[in-house]
Amino acid sequence: MQDNEMKKRMENYERIIREILGAFSKLEFHIILESTIHRKIIPVDKNDERDKLLLEDIRTIVNDFAIEYNRTPILHSIFIKN
Hints:
By secondary structure, the protein is an all-alpha fold. It folds into 2 domains: about 1-45, no CATH class; about 45-80. About 65% of the residues lie in helices and about 0% in strands. The protein contains 3 helices and no strands. The protein has helices at about 5-25, 30-35, 50-70. It is flat and about 60 Å long. It starts with a helix and ends in an 11-residue tail after the last helix.
């Protein structure tokens, strides 16, 4: 394939990607997420005490996981069967 033809294709791909990303930028994040995971997102009310506790639990779990992951990274080779 010639350089000029390849350049035109790349420009076309870039244009298509910009259009797709532009369409997604107009959507609310929860709509994209719900369509990706096929589940309804339940909104969090930061004024509700139970939701505050839930968010704190999630932060603690994620932080603990991050600390443990940094100590012992997950290696893909563990999941490969010989």
